[in-house]
Design brief:
The structure holds 3 protein chains of 3 kinds. Chain B is an all-alpha fold. Helices cover 78% and strands 2% of the residues of chain B. Chain B contains 22 helices and 2 strands. In chain C, helix 1 packs antiparallel against helix 4, helix 6 runs antiparallel to helix 7 (203-218) and helix 11 (274-296) packs parallel to helix 17 (409-437). The longest helix of chain C is centred in the C-terminal third of the chain and has 32 residues, at 324-355. Chain C has a two-stranded antiparallel sheet.
């Protein structure tokens, strides 16, 4: 009973509060809404940490959906890691949006769905079996939808629909696997090392490989892997900046998280190692890494550039997973955390810039560093982190990824992988640093610009504090990764 | 009981006598005489049926107690008695239903002539049913033809004259062929009495003599009667004859006259040639193919028709196709189905003609579909009757058509290679029937602000009663089919 | 209870409904009470029967030979009768409000109520002849409902409906004849009455006949080449489209196919033959086809009709897997889809009733003005898509796992078809929801000031359906247990 309550509270509370907020039509007072939302976010954060610290790694069956499939929660280490990331990023972006959303319409709806999505993410992290995870995955797609199309322009609605359709397409592909797993696995409860029934799959190995491939491909839609990445650069730029930050930082990680679950907790790494599925997965992820960076490099609109960057960076994580090698997976997890912090910082910075100066293109940002020093400093530090310059988190994770690739001994990829990672890192520097450079060193242009060029337009405290916190955390993760490494170490040995 | 044996003979003599008497009476008296006559003969036939049914045998009645070859014989069993009964009832209802039109469409001084013809027709039908002598049958075929021509022509307008001429020509060709056939038979067997011919034919079959003349005889008789009963390629006379003559004539012609010939053909099959001989000849295959094509092409013509009476007439072509298809199967159960369909079609077709005239009455005598729009509301009885008739034609359960359809289908599934064509044709024909009959039903129930809506239509009690009787008869045939089918089966066995 | 009751519940709606146009009701309210009373009493009788199930059969009349009209309440009958009897009173309540402004109300309700009896007749049929009999009657009593508005469109639609239905029955008839002539019995017996070698002319012919009969009954279930009647019939008033063309009529087709496959031909005979592959292929194609057409369609009710086409083939796909588990899936979807689709249709009806708008592009911003209706519509959309926790997921789960379990290679592709269809469902349902709740920026809500939620007579049934979907999705065990028992022939 105690476990049930611990596990359920962080899911139910924000969902409940969010729903109430949606229905409180009379509530017009902005301050009250903000206070309510803030309380909701913080309370949930506390409850989530309660799960992380106190929950035992045991199954909590809520009810039975059908005779074979229970809806079940099971906060294990991987789930807790996810929970940590979600909590930090979500609360920070939440508070950031208090300031950012001031001038937008329909704020109440935004916060309502923001809270609901928070709760659903809590559920996703704690899901104990495939069906539960699938359910929360679907809910997540749906609940985040109003955030994506918030300003309801034609472009936004179209992008939102694209997001919705791609996500469902992916989810259904994954669902395809569910039916087969029910038949060929001992259980669909997540078990480290996989649950496939060796006897049943004896003659059906090839078929199950296809199934595994489909499931990975299906969940990778959310993670923006080529060839089903197109929704991501469409949806991110149209959403309000905090929503893009949440999308890019967390929602897309939902896909990665699901792939981790599928590979290591259902099929088992051994089943896939050395098969064509792994090869395809590797090729696609590397392709995406490179392609994402190239596209980002050529993009002028800041948020779109960041979105392409997300595409590229997420495939770093997927590449690490695809190697099926402990060091690489460790790198992936670190990159998952690091990227969540960094990319939300970057998006929030972009949001602050857009909100305060109105500039959306990189080429317009000359001299912005003088006007918004704190924001651009945060942007710079985060950029360095993403490029992978020590001592930021990006360095550690990429180090692990490269080492893992070399250790794996997979013919071409053990060399091709690190090379592409490095090229991509260079490209990352190429597309992120110009913002800093132009921002702080505008060059000749400053004289020609208008009279308000130098006017300060730094964001208020509500904007800056979350930015600083996120930046600080990303740096801290890079400097002291050991505690985190120890935390996930046991899990890694369990799943390999 | 002994008395009952004389009834068939009585009814023949009565009807001929009535014809002669009517020629001297006024129209009104003639009509009454005809009604009384029909009722008496109905009773007599019922008595005959009672006799054969209770004793379960057939009877041979020698006219004037002269035995063959000088005398003339009547032979009757269950089926003959039942047919006579049924024909009388249908005729009675048809005359009642079209009574009003008779008065309108026939000049007063010819009215008694109409009843003379009717009585003659009745006598010839009874003779065809009862006689055991082929030459007598031929004589009455001719009488029948002449009477039918008169019935068509008596409504004097251009169409009917043309139709009657056409009918006459076709019929005479048919009679001629029949006569040739009879001559050949007489030539090779030396007899005219059916039972005697059959003995000789069986001897001929055993010895294998005169096979060619025998086949030719069968062919002539069969084709001759087929022409007269409007089997598909020989149906050209039919639509005009049924479409333009006065309604009682049309109803009687379509439901009784053609059926009289068909019944004669059945008798020839069983009593003259022997069913086994027929079954082994190629002739039934010819009938089968003509029957099938008739089923389809009759309906196709009906679909194209824009005149309700002609549409019903073309539907007759299709239905006669059913009957010949049943012959063509060459099994006893197929024969039962055909005989049942004779009954069912006779009941339904006369009903449809009577209903159609009710509908045209309230649409300014126009037979065009467009004018019939909404007629079902203006004449409720006719609308309902037409609907029931249509449903029966389409083969909806509850009504007689369904039973014949089911009997045909049951009959054909036993057959090796005729099964599939039959089933498919049955299905297609059902669809085609549905198309033109249901189109009409929907049409008559489509309300429209018609110019005829305000026309005073006097409530015609007599007509209503006839309609109800028709419906009752149809439903009885449809729901209480078991005893009737048993009767037919036993009747056919008595033939043998 | 006595076996006669089986016939009585068929008879009550048919006979009483004839009284509707004859009785001189002073007020509309009286008529409403009268009709609702008929329907409710009959439903209660049905429920009583379901609880005290008579084991025997009741023979009403005999045609020739061993052909008879017989009623029997077995497990399958329970499911269908139960489903219909739950939905009918609610749908009737809804239609009182909907039909307020339509003409010829009495005639409409007469046929509407009559259809209840006939549908129960199909459910309770004890043999294939009886089923065929009621199947034809169903066509006849529902045609006037399609014809109801008497516009040119309605007339054409009703004609198409008649041609297709009667034509389909003509082919179903062929199958029936084979069962009648060569079956061990014409009664429905789990496992079938025909088997390999039943027909002396060879099994191939028998299989061909099965395919023909499948197509014949499939016309009512709107399988692919024969589905164009269904979207056209959408011109009928919404209660008809919702209850008849999403539940009673089309499900009768599916029900008949279940009877044909599991109770007449027998799955042991059909499994693994070319006939199975053909019919399964047809259903799979229809699943995709229906969804694609729905995506293309811009008329709200027609879009839902296409969705029905696709979903009906889910049921048929379950049937064609030809294992007991497949039947479980088919029954699960039969019930689940009934609730989901009637719900979404009623929402569409409410929109049409309150605003007269028929096209999807006219629905901008309705979500705010009709929150109840569109809230419920959204839930039904999610259910149709198969979001876990709602009815659609359960049925799809059982269908797909049955397909996997069967080990039939084609069935695997069927799972794929179901999932592709799910994504298409997401497209065609979500575009409506998004439009209603998130109109484009700058949308002027004053243009739809007149749009309001309808009154309780419409909202109450919808709410109940909504609860039904949730309950089904969360706790389906008793129902699935029942289906499993039926599918293994134990009930």
């Amino acid at each position: 009973m105690r476990e049930t309550i611990i596990a359920l509270l962080p899911i139910l509370l924000p969902v409940f509060m969010g729903t109430i907020l949606l229905f409180l039509k009379r509530l017009k007072e902005r301050k009250v809404i903000l206070f309510y939302t803030g309380t909701g976010l913080l309370l949930t954060g506390v409850l989530a940490w309660n799960v992380i610290l106190n929950a035992k790694d045991q199954q909590v069956t809520l009810f039975w959906l059908t005779e074979q499939i229970p809806v079940m929660l099971k906060p294990d280490v991987l789930g807790k890691v996810f929970l940590m990331v979600v909590t930090v990023v979500w609360i920070c972006t939440g508070f950031f949006s208090f300031s950012y959303m001031k001038h937008e319409k329909n704020e109440r709806r935004y916060y309502g769905f923001f809270l609901i999505t928070f709760g659903i993410l809590m559920g996703l992290g704690q899901s104990g079996n495939l069906v539960t995870m699938y359910a929360f995955f679907e809910f997540m797609t749906l609940a985040a939808f109003p955030l994506v199309i918030h300003n309801q322009s034609r472009e936004a609605v179209m992008a939102g629909l694209k997001y919705l359709i791609y996500s469902f397409f992916g989810a259904y592909m994954a669902l395809f696997g569910l039916f087969f797993l029910c038949r060929y696995a001992d259980t669909i409860t997540f078990t480290p090392g996989g649950t496939l029934n060796a006897e049943l799959i004896a003659d059906h190995g090839q078929m199950l490989l296809i199934i595994a491939g489909l499931m990975i491909l299906g969940f990778s839609v959310k993670a923006g892997m080529f060839p089903l990445h197109a929704w991501l650069p469409a949806a991110h730029p149209v959403a309000p900046a905090p929503a893009s930050a949440a999308l890019s930082g967390i929602i897309v990680k939902g896909g990665v998280f699901a792939i981790l679950r599928v590979i290591f907790y259902l099929f088992g790494a051994d089943f896939l190692r050395g098969t064509w599925v792994q090869t395809v997965f590797l090729v696609l992820s590397l392709l995406t890494v490179f392609m994402g960076s190239m596209l980002a490099f050529g993009e002028d609109i800041l948020k779109k550039r960041l979105a392409y960057s997300t595409v590229s960076q997420l495939s770093y994580i997927l590449f690490g997973i695809a190697l099926l090698e402990p060091t690489a997976v460790c790198g992936s997890l670190l990159h998952l955390m690091g990227h969540a912090l960094i990319k939300s910082t970057l998006f929030l910075c972009a949001g602050a810039v857009i909100c305060r100066s109105g500039f959306t293109r990189v080429s317009e940002l000359r001299g912005i560093g003088k006007r918004m020093p704190v924001t651009i400093w945060c942007f710079t530090i985060a950029s360095l982190g993403l490029i992978g310059i020590p001592p930021t988190s990006g360095f550690i994770s990429k180090w692990y990824l490269a080492t893992g690739a070399l250790d794996s001994g997979i013919a071409v990829f053990q060399y091709a992988g690190p090379v592409i990672l490095i090229i991509s890192a260079l490209l990352t520097a190429g597309y992120l640093l110009p913002v800093t450079l132009k921002g702080f060193f505008p060059g000749e242009l400053q004289q020609e610009a208008g009279h308000d060029t130098w006017k300060k337009c730094e964001g208020d405290r509500l904007m800056l504090i979350p930015l600083v916190i996120l930046t600080a955390l990303s740096v801290l993760l890079g400097m002291f990764p050991n505690s985190m490494l120890n935390y996930i170490d046991g899990m890694l040995s369990g799943i390999m | 009981m002994e008395m009952l044996r004389n009834f068939p003979c009585f009814s023949l003599i009565l009807s001929m006598g009535a014809a002669i008497v009517s020629s001297g009476l006024s129209g009104k008296l003639a009509r009454r005489l005809n009604t009384v006559l029909l009722m008496i003969i109905t009773l007599l036939s019922a008595g005959t049926l009672y006799l054969t049914f209770t004793t379960d045998t057939f009877y041979v009645y020698k006219m004037g107690r002269f035995s063959a070859p000088w005398g003339n014989e009547i032979r009757f069993g269950n089926l003959e008695a039942f047919m006579a009964l049924f024909f009388c009832i249908v005729m009675l209802l048809s005359i009642w239903g079209g009574k009003k039109h008779l008065k309108k469409e026939i000049s007063d001084f010819k009215e008694n002539l109409y009843y003379v013809l009717l009585n003659l027709l009745l006598s010839s039908l009874l003779a065809l049913i009862y006689t055991n002598d082929l030459f007598t049958a031929y004589v009455f075929v001719e009488i029948n033809t002449i009477a039918a021509c008169g019935l068509i022509m008596i409504r004097e307008n251009g169409h009917t004259l043309e139709a009657a001429t056409r009918y006459m020509l076709m019929s005479l060709i048919g009679s001629g062929l029949l006569l040739f056939g009879l001559c050949i038979l007489y030539d090779i067997t030396g007899h005219l009495l059916m039972s005697n011919i059959k003995e000789q034919v069986s001897i001929l079959t055993e010895t294998g003599e005169y096979q060619l003349p025998l086949t030719v005889a069968i062919l002539f008789i069969g084709v001759g009667l087929a022409v007269k009963s409007a089997l598909f390629p020989f149906h050209a006379w039919l639509p005009d004859a049924y479409g333009y003559s006065t309604v009682s004539s049309a109803a009687i012609l379509s439901s009784l006259v053609s059926k009289g010939y068909i019944f004669l053909l059945i008798k020839v099959f069983y009593r003259v040639i022997g069913f086994e001989v027929i079954r082994q000849s190629e002739f039934i295959n010819v009938l089968f193919i003509f029957g099938l094509t008739g089923m389809i092409f009759g309906s196709l013509s009906a679909i194209q028709e824009n005149d309700i009476r002609r549409m019903i007439a073309f539907s007759s072509v299709a239905q006669i196709g059913y009957i010949y298809m049943g012959f063509g199967l060459g099994t006893e159960i197929g024969m039962v189905a055909s005989v049942y369909h004779i009954l069912s079609h006779a009941a339904t077709k006369s009903m449809l003609f009577i209903a159609a005239v009710g509908l045209t009455d309230v649409s300014g005598q126009s037979k065009k579909f467009i004018d019939l729009t909404g007629a079902g509301y203006r004449n409720v009885a006719a609308g309902l009757t037409f609907t029931v008739g249509s449903l029966s034609m389409v083969g909806v359960p509850l009504f007689s058509g369904f039973i014949s359809k089911i009997l045909f289908a049951q009959a054909c599934v036993g057959h090796a290679y005729k099964m599939l064509p039959t089933l498919i044709c049955l299905a297609i024909s059902t669809i085609l029937n549905a198309i033109y009959f249901m189109k009409t039903v929907v049409r008559i129930y489509t309300p429209v602000k018609s110019e005829y809506a305000s026309l005073p239509w006097k409530k015609d009690i007599g007509y209503g009663v006839v309609c109800i009787l028709f419906i009752v008869m149809n439903v009885l045939l449809g729901m209480n089919s078991e005893p009737i089918v048993e009767l037919i089966r036993s009747g056919i066995q008595m033939f043998g | 209870m006595s076996e006669v009751m089986l016939f009585i519940i068929v008879l009550i709606p048919v006979l009483w409904s004839i009284l509707i146009p004859m009785l001189p009701f002073k007020k509309r309210g009286h008529m409403m009470i009268f009709i609702e009373a008929i329907v409710l009493i009959n439903s209660i009788l049905v429920w009583l029967l379901l609880w005290n199930r008579p084991e025997g059969t009741f023979t009403l009349l005999r045609f020739t030979g061993h052909l008879s009209v017989t009623f029997r309440l077995d497990g399958m009958a329970c499911v269908f009768a139960g489903l219909v009897s739950v939905l009918w009173p609610l749908a009737t309540l809804y239609s009182f409000e909907y039909m307020k402004h339509e003409d010829h109300e009495k005639v409409f309700f007469m046929f509407y109520t009559m259809t209840y009896g006939v549908t129960l007749g199909i459910a309770m049929s004890g043999n294939i002849l009886t089923m065929y009999f009621f199947y034809e009657l169903l066509t006849l009593v529902t045609t006037p409902l399609v014809l109801h508005t008497l516009t040119r469109e309605a007339i054409l639609a009703s004609r198409t409906y008649l041609y297709y239905s009667l034509g389909g029955a003509a082919f179903a008839f062929i199958g029936m004849i084979f069962v009648v002539v060569y079956g061990n019995s014409i009664d429905f017996i789990y496992g079938g009455v025909l088997h390999a070698g039943s027909y002396p002319g060879g099994d191939q012919v028998l299989l061909l006949i099965y395919v023909l009969a499948f197509m014949g009954f499939g016309v009512k279930a709107a399988i692919c080449p024969f589905n164009s009647w269904l979207p056209k019939a959408g011109v009928a008033p919404t209660p008809v489209t919702a209850l008849l063309h999403a539940v009673a009529v089309v499900k009768s087709g599916a029900f008949a196919i279940i009877r044909l496959t599991y109770y007449s031909f027998g799955v042991d005979f059909l499994r693994g033959t070319w006939a199975q592959y053909v019919v399964m292929g047809i259903t799979m194609f229809t699943i995709i086809y229906g969804c694609s057409m729905a995506v293309k369609e811009r008329h709200l009710k027609r879009r839902l009709a296409y969705s029905t086409i696709s979903n009906l083939s889910y049921i048929l796909f379950g049937v064609t897997i030809m294992t007991p588990l497949g039947l479980v899936g088919a029954l699960a979807h039969l019930t689940a889809h009934a609730i989901m689709k009637i719900c979404s249709f009623f929402c569409a009806g409410a929109v049409i009733y309150k605003t007269g708008r028929n096209y999807i592009y006219e629905l901008d911003g309705f979500g705010r003005r009709m929150p109840k209706i569109f809230g419920i519509f959204t839930i039904s959309a999610f259910a149709l898509m198969g979001v876990p926790g709602l009815a659609g997921f359960i049925s799809k789960y059982y269908l797909a796992s049955a397909a996997v379990e069967s080990g039939n290679a084609l069935a695997y592709f069927g799972v794929g078809a179901i999932l592709i269809s799910a994504i298409l469902t997401a497209i065609y349902m979500q575009t409506i929801v998004v439009r209603a709740f998130f109109p484009q920026a700058g949308f002027d809500y004053h243009t739809i000031d007149d749009v309001r939620d309808p009154n309780w007579m419409m909202v109450l049934p919808l709410t109940l359906f909504c609860i039904g979907m949730l309950a089904y999705g969360v706790y389906s065990k008793p129902l699935i247990d029942l289906f499993t028992k039926i599918a293994y022939g134990a009930f």
